[in-house]
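Reopening: structure tokens for the 2-(butylsulfanyl)adenosine complex, inputs below.
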Amino acid sequence: MDERERIEELRATLTRFVRAYFVEDQPEVSDAVYDSLMRELVELERRHPELHDPDSPSQRVGGAPRGDFRTVSHEPPLLSLMNAMDADDLRAFDRRVAQAAGDALAGVPGPYVVEPKIDGLTVVLRYENGRLRLGATRGDGLTGEDVTPNLAAIAAVPRELPPGAPGRLEVRGEVYLPVASFDALNRLREAEGRPLFQNPRNAAAGSLRQQDPEVTASRGLSLFCYEIRAGAEPRTQNEALQLLAVWGLPVNPLRWLCRTVDDVIAVTEEFAPGRERLPYAVDGLVVKLDDLGITRRLGATQKAPRAQIAFKFPADEAATTLLDIEVQVGRTGALTPTAVLAPVRLAGTTVQRASLHNEDLIRQKDIRIGDLVRVRKAGEIIPEVIGIVPGEGHEGRPPYAFPTVCPVCGAEAVRLEGEAVRRCSNPSCPAKLREWLLHLGSRGALDIDGLGPRTVDLLLETGLVHEPEDLFRLTPADLEGLPRLGEKSAAKLMAQLQAARTRPLDRLLVALGIPHVGERSAQALAERFQSLEGLAAASGAELAEVAGIGEATATEIERFMTGPVGQRLLRSLGELGFRPEAPARQASGALDGEIVVFTGRLSRPRSEAQAIARSCGAVVEGDITRRTTLVVVGEEAGQKLAKARSLGIRTMTEAEFGAVTGAG
Ligand code: IVH
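Re-run output (same inputs, fresh job):
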């Protein structure tokens, strides 16, 4: 799709969303998705001025009136705000203000007033001779709707002002639905089987635009005022807020006076985490030059004042185009799909790849290449595609067909019953080998420093390694003169490979890369079977008796040990000089066969108590399951203790544990 088509598509999609949002008060997508698409449209339109269209959703903010109310013209128009997405945007804004203001600010803009950006809807209130004469919505900024009776029904909206207020006063503010009222309203709607409001803003809009003011009154709406449009010309924003309060209008007490843009940035960072605790929804902060004289002089662009800007908190969801689906082959041969995306800003970073989880998710959500997809990134987790944004073009694109052959070696990729993943069936698939080598050298396995992706690729490309054992057949002569591998690195790698031969048995087990066998289960297996040969000889039933080894893992172990790769390894590891250290059974044996879980506060570090238990023959686990045989209970033990009791598992105090293990 070229950029012209993309612009058209975005305009059509956003027009639909705008209608759903502003006119029907029932948004189709989250604000974050809407914002990210709007940003993309604005950027594309900036690159293509020849495609300018006054009807583009980017040119018009807010919705056209629905026709239920008398319309009101706003004079001057109610502007909107520019958006800043991060600290850089704020600094650029600060520089623009300094430049535009010139001498008036002597190059140092500020102070700024920073206010919470209330997620509600803008209204205008007009008072004449102290009485509320008009209350209107913002509409598209030029024309709004007369909702005077409804606004008058809101408890926070004064119908009369105290003596001393200007004879004619027009103010701007934000009507919002407190979080508690929003939750209560949605609970009620759920009970009535009616569609829920997506967010407090839409609920506020829906509640305000009611034919019956009593309905509005019952919803618990509230108001914060932040601008004097007519009736007084305060010198500063701070003064404006004070005057509004003196005249009995509700003003948000929360605000920050910041001397410089650095102080503003500090506020954006400090405020974000705590905002969830406020009783109203906040979707950002508004940064305003305190000096209103200069603010007026700097004027506005078409849409927004130059000396004010909205800082939007980074959204954790966005929408972007799915350009391709890449399927990678992991160590166990699992085919994992990754989404290749048109770059999109998400939670403060630019995202171009995201997890698509597995074949089933793609089918269930009917995700097709070319679709507009919703991407989420919460906290530290990898970004993931969570679904599509229904829209133009989806039906015309072919459904995605997940590969049934390995994209690397072309062998059949099979999906075993009960498994979520499809795996390459070729035991010597080069992709598997590469991932296996990387895994084998990783910390929890044989910990071979220097066996990173570069070296692994080099060894594979040069044909020095065809199977994992080949690593341990390498000689200094093999490595000599290899491109991209210096003499020192080569020597170090040889030493590391030597050291790997005597790593503890459990690490070697991890290195084998058997599906589901991680560090914990490897430890348990090493303790129980003491050698690779012992493990290979174990029956399925014996394996399943080991703590932490479920049926699926037992099956994988058997499959590996009896398969060609396992058999080959078993034969050659000894020849290659492997002497894995078996875990010492220095156990007093006091807890032999016990599966122990610790809970509550202990007098010694938990890791120490666990080590004592292990040295006495126990297997230590983190969670209580039906297999747990003993729970050691510290102070203030809660749910786990209750669970142990309900399952009838034996418990022991820490003192008893000390006595049994001889650890005092
Ligand atoms: S000042 C010229 N202050 O945010 C525009 N706006 O994205 C003056 N908003 O349309 C707006 N809280 O509906 C301002 N403390 C606040 C605000 C606020 C919420 C809304 C307002 C505006 C939108 C801009």
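Residues 79-81, 115, 117-118, 122, 174, 226-227, 286, 305, 308, 310 surround 2-(butylsulfanyl)adenosine (CB under 6 Å). The two ends are 73 Å apart (CA to CA). Marking as resolved unless the reporter disagrees.
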